[in-house]
Design brief:
Elements lengths: L19 E4 L4 E4 L4 E6 L7 E3 L10 E6 L7 E4 L6 E7 L2 E8 L8 E20 L2 H4 L4 E5 L2 E6 L2 E8 L3 E5 L2 E9 L3 E10 L10 H16 L9 H13 L1 E2 L4 E2 L22 E2 L3 H11 L2 H15 L9 E2 L10 E2 L13 E2 L10 H15 L8 H15 L18 H20 L7 H18 L1 E2 L4 E2 L15 H4 L7 H14 E2 L2 E2 L18 E2 H13 L3 H12 L11 E3 L4 E3 L5 H15 L6
Antiparallel strand pairs: 1-2, 2-3, 3-4, 3-5, 5-9, 6-7, 7-8, 8-9, 9-14, 9-15, 10-11, 11-12, 12-15, 13-14, 16-17, 18-19, 20-21, 22-23, 24-25, 26-27, 27-28
Helix pairs in contact: 3-14, 4-5, 4-6, 4-14, 5-6, 6-7, 6-8, 7-8, 8-9, 12-13, 12-14, 13-14
Length: 605
């Protein structure tokens, strides 16, 4: 059936932080405080969505379960150390709870929603509008064996309730209404599968709930961190696990596309892919927190993704290592808070970013040093990357932040070239069985270091700069002491930390760079404070002996987590709202690493 606009469809008025995440490590859904699932891509994170109300209105797909006539919930929370969400409404007739989860799949993905009466007798309504291909395709719905079956092209979704409840079709949606008393439960199971295949195997929703709680708590119990804000650290690790594509080990940047970095602006990107820039910091967080299996899976994904001609190394890949991620605009979606265009794919995939060579070399160095099992081809790949860098490192590139204003000589990119050479040298010095161009890589390391200190440092202001010879600064420069380019007590490091904080500070937090007046950015409008950069500032303050300031900043950053412990990419401190794709892996990686940095020992500066 052709898509339609239903009367005056309701636009999303929620804030980004009003959402919670559920998932099965192959895809994820966002559940609002009103009990509506407004975002879900099936069967993978990067598939077309069947619920896209997040980026449009109710006729672009959603599934709401809530008491009849009720608005936002009274309270909600994850069950401790799990990804199982409980949402409760207190009404004049009583209290009802909806428990949402996506159990680990064996074959098909399932969404389980269990409605339970807590007190009194409450009438509950379920409204399901399926819209495949990001809200553009309305399926044909029929009854079959106690199910509602929605089919359109390659997609098929089966919906059932246990026990069966009154269900009817209206206004291109599937509606149910029923009453639950204290202790009564009704479970809904929504299952996707390819439309050409037979009906998928049915799961028991209550067994799925029990096993999900057990499995998540067993996994969370492996966390080796036992310092302040442990709950926030565990929640961040659970979020990283939820953003992992289990079949390959790839960790995507976020579960969403096109949530704006500025409401009404054009900085709306698809983050449902895996970035190499995140690799070292992610690996460090997993290893330091005690998750070696996940660290090894991520390392193995990295090795598969980067295999091939080093000149063709990309900055990002699909969750299974796909290379082609063409950027497309979806004009039928009006965007979150009117922020257009809505995009799928990411054109930055074709950019040159020299920093990723350093990230890959650093990640593999870290993995080897941590004792992760090596792979026969790992060192051969590293040698190939270094061979390419020897001739290519002087090229300008688009830099860490994927600017769209043309290539520049970014200082952070050159520093990461130094990191690549340094890790190659240190690997050969530590492991006698490996062979390589030790003297050549030492010369490259020294040459890059001299050039960066000469061309990328502003002596007048005592700070490194964003690009050679420029006056602009970049929050990525805070990583200078972390990667070992200079020691933390070097006056140039201290000067850079102070200059970046003064120049890019935004109401107590930190921007990536000056997007408003940038000559390299290439896009109109600005953005909020970039959360991972603020975590980097806390790290840098600690490393330069200002631990009390670092811990105060960390406390404020943890306080930005929403009511269920999740962070987006950015934060608007003026309007006090989260911005950008959600939840953001890089923000949660920053939280974990900074907690480990600040509280791994109690030595304060």
């Amino acid at each position: 059936m052709a898509p339609r606009q239903a009367g005056k469809p309701e636009r999303v008025t929620s804030r980004i932080e009003d959402y919670a995440l559920i998932g099965d490590e192959q895809t994820a859904a966002l559940v609002g405080r009103d009990g509506s699932i407004d975002w879900l891509c099936l069967p993978r994170f990067d598939s077309g969505s069947c619920f896209a109300r997040l980026l449009g209105d109710e006729d672009h797909g959603h599934w709401r379960i809530a008491p009849r006539g009720a608005d936002t919930c009274t309270r909600r929370a994850y069950r401790s150390d799990t990804l199982v969400l409980d949402t409760e409404w207190e009404t004049g007739d009583g209290t009802v709870r909806v428990t949402d989860l996506m159990p680990q799949r064996e074959h098909a993905p399932d969404v389980v929603r269990i409605v339970e009466g807590v007190s009194g007798r409450v009438t509950v309504r379920s409204t399901l509008r399926l819209r495949f291909d990001h809200g553009s395709v309305t399926p044909w719905v029929r009854r079959s064996d106690g199910h509602r079956v929605a089919v359109a092209g390659p997609d098929s979704v089966w919906l059932r309730a246990e026990p069966d409840v009154r269900t009817w079709g209206e206004d291109y949606g599937t509606h149910s209404e029923f009453t639950v008393a204290e202790g009564e439960r009704v479970a809904f199971v929504l299952t996707w599968h390819p439309s050409h295949e037979p009906r998928p195997t049915l799961i028991d929703p209550y067994e799925a709930l029990e096993s999900s709680v057990t499995d998540w708590r067993r996994w969370a119990g492996q966390c080796g961190y036992d310092g302040p804000h442990r709950d926030a650290v565990v929640r961040s690790l659970i979020t990283l696990k939820a953003l992992t594509y289990a079949p390959t080990g790839g960790i995507l940047a976020a579960a969403t596309t096109s949530l704006p970095e500025k409401p009404g602006g054009v900085r709306n990107w698809d983050y449902r892919y895996c970035w190499l820039r995140d690799s070292t910091l992610t690996l460090n967080a997993l290893l330091a927190a005690g998750y070696r299996q996940e660290a090894e899976a991520w390392r193995n994904w990295l090795l598969r993704a980067v295999a091939g001609d080093p000149a063709d190394l990309q900055i990002m890949y699909g969750v299974a290592g796909e290379r082609r991620l063409p950027e497309t605009e979806l004009p039928w979606l009006p965007g979150f808070a009117g922020s257009t265009p809505v995009r799928t794919g990411n054109g930055a995939v074709d950019q040159l970013q020299l920093d990723v060579y350093g990230e890959v070399m650093d990640s593999l160095f870290l993995a080897r040093a941590a004792g992760l099992p090596t792979r026969p081809h790992m060192w051969a790949i590293q040698r190939s990357l270094m061979q390419f860098l020897k001739s290519a490192w002087r090229q300008p590139d688009e830099g860490l932040w994927e600017v769209r204003g043309g290539r520049q000589q970014f200082v952070h990119s050159k520093i990461m070239v130094w990191v690549a050479a340094d890790r190659a040298v240190r690997t050969l010095e530590r492991y006698d069985e490996l062979e390589g161009d030790l003297e050549g890589w030492r010369r490259l390391r020294d040459e890059v270091h001299r050039e960066v200190c000469e061309k990328g440092f502003d002596r007048e202001r005592n700070t490194f700069t964003q690009t050679y010879g420029s006056r602009e600064l970049d929050a990525a420069l805070l990583l200078v002491p972390r990667v070992g380019f200079l020691p933390p007590d070097d006056p140039r490091v201290v000067g850079t930390v102070d200059a970046v904080r003064d120049d890019l500070g935004h109401h107590g937090f930190l921007r990536r760079y000056d997007t408003e007046d940038s000559v390299v950015d290439g896009l109109p409008g600005g953005e909020g404070a970039f959360l991972v950069c603020s975590f980097w500032l806390a790290d840098a303050l600690h490393m330069t002996g200002r631990t009390e300031e670092a811990r105060e900043l960390f406390e404020r950053l943890v306080g930005l987590c929403n009511d269920v412990g999740l962070l987006a990419e950015e934060y608007d401190p003026v309007h006090r709202r989260q911005l950008g794709n959600f939840p953001q892996a890089f923000s949660h990686v920053g939280l974990v690493n900074t907690a480990l940095t600040l509280f791994g020992d109690e030595e304060a500066g």
